[in-house]
Specification:
1236 residues, alpha+beta, Non-ribosomal Peptide Synthetase Peptidyl Carrier Protein, Chain A, Cathepsin D, subunit A, domain 1, 5-stranded mixed β-sheet, 44 strands, 17% strand, disordered C terminus
Length: 1236
């Protein structure tokens, strides 16, 4: 038994299998088998077996040993094994048979449902993980009838053929790979296409008429090579380098197969990704060892942990050194992560692109520096790129020259790459990049559409189509089929959608899906679309602009086969399915924007939203460089453009209804001209539509609210629509204001930012400023509820609105908010706990920002003052539900409280002052209100009541009634003050409470006497209802049990029989524990009811720890003793004052423990109990979420069909002899029992 194995489960399984084989071969008796097992288990297993204390009889049955060994196996998670299986690949030197065996072994642990599923999974991994590309192609070309056995035979045949070819090449010495130094004869010149002696190319010194670059002719120009080749995912930008042409051409038949030849290594700087590269021309190359073979291998001495050598192939056509990943793994096994790749920090990551001769990009894992030398040369630091390639280690030209492996006998001519061709218009661009304006796009990869769990497929019936459009629809479908967008479907499909079509702006027909049913089942992959605000500031300083349109936008994204089947649709000529992403799906915009963001992130000076792309530059040269780079990236990423919609090299550009130029951003005149031509509204809907356009153009219209007020009045409910001349004038003036060309400045992140805000009784406004110049405007009409806010609340609401509206600009940097309401400066400095509830919620929303609120007189903020009167179409309201509290009080008393507040002259005047705003000086207030000046920032109005923080201010006429309720439990002055502090307030309330308690005869007759001995406290628990104390007490001739929580001090009492027993005590405790949960510890004295076997059994069954106090020393249970005293005194006072004892206990439970602790009820239940005092109930996020879920549940229950038939429609079948039961139903009409 191999106890050192990491996989002990497999090791134990193998060990048992070997033992069983041995016993079967040797015919070993069963009772002797344990001796061999113990011998083969080794010393560690023997020590383990001795700990089991098995008898001789148990040992003679080997099953007892195997069963216990089986328990040593760690729990197996089949999902982990399935994930590991996905990563299995064929190792270097591993045969296909061995790789398949390794996959089978892992598949056994994956616990697939049956053998067929297991074989299918092994087959998939064989295809995905084999290192023989020809095997992959062959297997992928087969249909569903391919089995694992057939696939294995094919793979072994290919493997054997490859081995035979390798042996033949070694015997004949004629083998060659792409990354070898090529033979110089029988090769067509890459510059002219012909054959000629060295250094006699007729194309040298000429210019290509296609790409305008030197030293080659048009017929061999590679500038039109499609860039839609497979690109491995890596973060670097790819910019193709022009290689020296002529000698380094591959032999016929080697360009596409075999190993990849690294012929370009490009370092892309962070500063300018479009820097020109140098072109190196070589006349002849001579090696220093006279080897005449096509390939040259040498062994380099390297500095390693021990003297070692590295065999490399010298390749003068490579611009860098390559170290295959398999060699790296053998050299540096300690630097690998669990997946077998270089660990983080093991290599230096470079933004470098490695490109093979045929244009394929090679994935690299970073650079490692190795000190090496050749024979007697000096040591050199050679940088090797670690790549996932099958070829040998390669030493490129730079390192080969350093190590004096090659010498160049001709002069090296270095010439800067030719300047980029200027682009004057769209025609120039199309001639330079013709392939980028043909066909449809071809983005990398395929999109998979994920359905929601439980989605039900829908088949839409065929629709009728207009006869006059049938030919046009058929023609468009045929065109889409020809370019590969759709494919005919003949087999049955679960989903069949309807066909939809619309007219394009050009007059053509656009065919798309009507996937409303499908969209409801699609799980959307959300991707944020950039907003105008997020990208506008990037245009600052640009003078030259171009606009391009992505051709057939969504069709550039390919769908996988499963997703394609979901898009099957009916048509006049049969069913089709989309091979490309169709218009209409709810994932289309997200997927396309994500793909465009990935492409444009590689392109400097380029921004885009959906299919519109803007290229900009500070001058023409900068613009042209950015444009050429975009086209190069588009070629590689498969992006094509619509030449009819391209606007090249203009001084201003239209983008999403705005015009951008050097001066800033302006309204689009075309949009304005259409607005100017709008006819007068004929209905309320027309007015609302026009106000929507006004809202879109609102940043350019100052004082909009005054101009739109008459039109907004028409949209209110109950107002009859009647158009007249005065409304027509308002309408015309608004159109003129929209068409007026008012420029806004660009936002500069380096400048100081200010937001001016103001609030009126009907709206709030905000202006974003830098250097005193406007960046953006915003306004919001107040709802009816917001219009009833106090003045300070409206002003702070304006601050919150300005910050949230301009979040894109200000988030993450410090800025100043200017307001003409001076108290806001102090509100910001106060703690949240001391601010009124609504202001508290607003201040919490400002916690995300680094903001300073400063006072500025209103006369200096004309812009914000006018904006505060703006009232566009209703905008999104600011969520303040969490700050609106419900007043908990009986409805009659609450109405009385409102009436008495209205009748109280002081409170009525105070309420009006809060709503209208406080004066600048306390002397301007009436004398009766000056006492409130010091706490004016804490005052607010809610539900027609005046609040100080979250305490209701009680009018004078109800103060006596409230004092009586405060003292209902006959608690002392301090407790009564604490209780009042949680909910009610008026001037002098503490003095009134002291006087009330002193005049209470019951309280005076029950004053506390001096305590005889100190009670011993217990440790404070960590949570409510963790530890509870219990005790029995006698009051007024009756027996009671008290249970109190040590954490919250919450007391509960239950009535007991005249002679309490363990049974009655246990019954009372069970009732409490079933309501509040079982505590961890129950503490009591040693009374007979607790010190009994019955109670011990109860504590064991219910799972709590029972702790008793010391005999004849009840002070050790001091908490329960103290609670008994408090409860008995409360009940005694209630009896003497002839008041309700339960109400007195409620007052005790809802009174704060002290000034820093809430009431026992709030500590235990995390909420305040409704008592005889008015208070504000604070909703929690959990309450709101639960309420929404309850509403959904209620609506769902309403939809459940219910049958009230007296008998079921059918009786379920029961097997003969099974038990049957009878159920009796009560007839609610006449109480007659029916037997069912």
């Amino acid at each position: 038994m191999d106890w050192s194995s990491d996989d002990k489960a497999q090791s134990l399984q193998d060990f048992k299998q070997l033992c069983d084989m041995w016993f079967k071969v040797k015919n070993t008796e069963k009772k002797l088998q344990h001796n061999y097992i113990m011998l083969w288990l080794g010393s560690e297993g023997l020590r383990l077996l001795n700990t089991w204390n098995l008898t001789v009889e148990q040992l003679e049955d080997p099953k007892n040993i195997w069963d216990r060994l089986q328990l040593l196996q760690p729990p197996q998670n089949f999902r982990i094994h399935r994930l590991e299986m996905q990563r299995l690949t064929q190792r270097t030197g591993e045969s296909v048979e061995d790789f398949c065996t390794r996959c089978r072994t892992k598949a056994i642990k994956c616990k697939y449902t049956d053998k067929a599923a297991e074989d299918e999974r092994v087959l998939e991994q064989l295809i995905a993980g084999t290192s023989i590309s020809t095997v992959q192609r062959e297997l992928l070309s087969r249909d569903r009838t391919l089995t694992l056995a057939t696939a294995l035979e094919l793979a072994k045949s290919h493997e054997a053929t490859a081995n035979h070819m390798r042996q033949m090449q070694e015997l004949t010495g004629t083998g060659s790979t792409i990354d070898a130094i090529r033979a110089k004869d029988s090769i067509a010149c890459g510059n002219c296409g012909g054959k000629h002696p060295p250094r006699q190319c007729p194309a040298y010194g000429t210019t290509c008429s296609k790409c305008l670059r030197p030293n080659h002719w048009q017929k061999v120009c590679r500038s039109s090579t499609s860039g839609s080749t497979d690109r491995p995912g890596h973060a670097a930008q790819s910019l193709k380098q022009h290689k020296p042409r002529g000698r380094r051409r591959g032999r016929p038949g080697h360009q596409q197969g075999g190993r990849k030849h690294i012929n370009a290594v490009q370092d892309i700087s962070d500063d300018d990704p479009t820097d020109d590269f140098a072109c190196l021309d070589f006349s002849s190359i001579e090696t220093n060892n006279g080897d005449n073979r096509d390939e040259l291998y040498v062994s380099l001495d390297i500095k390693y942990t021990m003297p070692a050598s590295l065999r490399v192939k010298v390749d003068t056509g490579a611009q860098g050194n390559i170290l295959p990943l398999r060699i790296y793994r053998r050299m540096f096994p300690e630097q690998l992560n669990p997946e077998g790749f270089p660990a983080a920090g093991a290599t230096e990551l470079r933004r470098t692109v490695l490109q093979a001769y045929n244009g394929t990009l090679i994935k690299q894992f970073g650079v490692i520096t190795i000190q090496c030398k050749f024979k007697k040369t000096e040591w050199h630091d050679a940088e090797f790129f670690v790549t996932d390639s099958n070829g040998p280690a390669i030493l490129g030209l730079p390192s080969s020259r350093q190590l004096k492996l090659v010498t160049v006998h001709c002069a090296i001519q270095t010439a800067a790459a030719p300047a980029l061709k200027p682009v004057k218009n769209a025609s120039d661009l199309e001639r330079t990049y013709p392939d980028r304006f043909e066909g449809i796009g071809n983005f990398e990869g395929e999109l998979h559409i994920t359905l929601k769990e439980g989605a039900q497929a829908v088949v839409q019936p065929p629709r009728k189509y207009p006869i006059q459009l049938l030919d046009e629809i058929k023609s468009e479908l045929k065109k889409m089929e020809n370019i590969g967008v759709i494919t005919p479907v003949t087999e049955p499909t679960d989903w069949v959608n309807a066909l939809a079509f619309s007219r394009k702006a050009s007059g053509g027909l656009r065919v798309c899906l009507d996937p409303r049913a499908l969209n409801q089942c699609i799980k959307r992959t959300h991707h944020k679309t950039p907003t105008i605000e997020e990208i506008t500031n990037r245009l600052s300083g640009s003078k030259v602009f171009s606009k391009l349109d992505a051709k057939h936008g969504y069709w550039a994204i390919k769908l996988d086969e499963e997703s394609s089947m979901l898009t099957t649709f009916n048509s006049p000529v049969g069913r089709f399915r989309f091979n490309r992403l169709p218009f209409g799906l709810n994932v289309s915009q997200d997927a396309f924007q994500q793909a465009m963001d990935r492409i444009l992130s590689q392109c400097p000076g380029t921004i885009g939203i959906t299919d519109d792309v803007i290229v900009h530059g500070k001058d023409e040269e900068d613009h042209d460089r950015n444009l050429h780079h975009l086209m190069d990236v588009a070629r590689k990423c498969g992006l094509v453009f619509n030449s009819d919609k391209c606007h090249i090299k203009t001084s201003q550009i239209k983008f999403f209804g705005m015009i951008y130029d050097l001066e800033g951003v302006h309204p689009d005149p075309d949009k304005c001209s259409e607005i100017q031509a709008l006819p007068a509204p004929k209905s309320v809907t027309d007015v609302q539509r026009f106000l929507g356009i006004v809202q879109f153009m609102s940043p350019f219209i100052p004082k909009l609210s005054d101009k739109t007020a008459p039109l907004r009045a028409l949209t209110k409910k109950g107002v009859n629509f009647e158009w007249n001349s005065s409304l027509q004038k308002v309408f015309d003036d608004l159109k003129a204001s929209i068409c007026k060309d008012t420029a806004l400045s660009f936002f500069d992140v380096s400048k100081k930012t200010t937001i001016q805000v103001d609030a009126s009784k009907i709206g709030v406004g905000a202006a974003l400023l830098q250097d005193g110049k406007p960046i953006a405007f915003a306004s919001k009409a107040l709802t009816d509820t917001e219009q009833r806010y106090a003045n300070i609340e409206r002003e702070l609401l304006a601050v919150v609105f300005g910050c949230t509206r301009f979040h894109t600009y200000i988030y993450g940097k410090h800025f100043v908010v200017e307001s003409d309401h001076k108290p806001l400066e102090q509100v910001q400095k106060k703690s949240l706990a001391s601010t009124p509830p609504r202001l508290q919620r607003m201040m919490l929303q400002l916690q995300h920002y680094d903001v300073t609120i400063q006072y500025r007189p209103g006369k200096e903020m004309i812009l914000a003052d006018s904006l505060s009167r703006l009232n566009p179409t209703p905008s999104k309201s600011i969520s303040l539900e969490q700050s609106i509290y419900a007043v908990q009080f009986s409805s009659d008393r609450l109405q009385e409280l409102r009436q008495k507040t209205d009748a109280d002259p002081d409170l009525a005047a105070l309420r009006d002052t809060i709503i209208d705003g406080w004066p600048d000086n306390a002397k301007l207030l009436p004398k009766r209100l000056r006492d409130y000046w010091s706490c004016k920032d804490e005052l607010s109005v809610e539900d027609d009541l005046v609040l100080k923080g979250d305490r209701i201010i009680i009018p004078a006429a109800m103060q006596a009634y409230i004092l009586q309720n405060i003292h209902a439990g006959h608690q002392g002055s301090e407790k009564c003050k604490l209780r009042a502090k949680t909910c009610v307030y008026w001037r002098g309330i503490n003095a009134h409470i002291d006087d009330w308690v002193k005049r209470c005869n019951v309280c005076q007759s029950n004053l506390n006497s001096q305590q005889a001995e100190t009670l011993l406290p217990h440790d404070v628990p960590t949570r409510p209802w963790q530890n509870v104390g219990t005790d029995l007490f006698h009051f007024d001739g009756k027996e009671y049990i008290l249970v109190s929580d040590y954490f919250s001090k919450m007391p509960f009492i239950r009535r007991l029989p005249a002679q309490p027993t363990s049974t009655s005590v246990i019954t009372a405790l069970k009732q409490l524990f079933s309501e509040h949960g079982i505590p961890t510890k129950v503490i009591s004295d040693n009374g007979p009811q607790y010190d009994s076997n019955e109670f011990a059994t109860f504590s064991a069954e219910w799972g709590f720890q029972h702790v008793t106090s010391s005999p004849r020393y009840p002070q050790s249970n001091g908490f329960a003793e103290r609670m008994v005293q408090t409860v008995k005194k409360t009940l005694l006072k209630a009896k003497q004052s002839n008041s309700d004892p339960d109400l007195a206990l409620l007052c005790l439970r809802t009174t704060p423990i002290d000034s820093s602790l809430p009431s026992p009820a709030e500590l235990l239940y995390s909420r305040n109990l409704q008592s005889n005092l008015p208070h504000l109930a604070k909703p929690t996020p959990y309450n709101r979420k639960a309420r929404r879920n309850l509403q959904v549940r209620q609506q769902t229950q309403k939809k459940i069909p219910r049958s009230f038939s007296p008998r079921p429609s059918s009786t379920p079948h029961r097997p003969e002899g099974s038990d049957a039961r009878k159920q009796r139903h009560m007839d609610t009409s006449n109480c007659r029992q029916q037997e069912a």
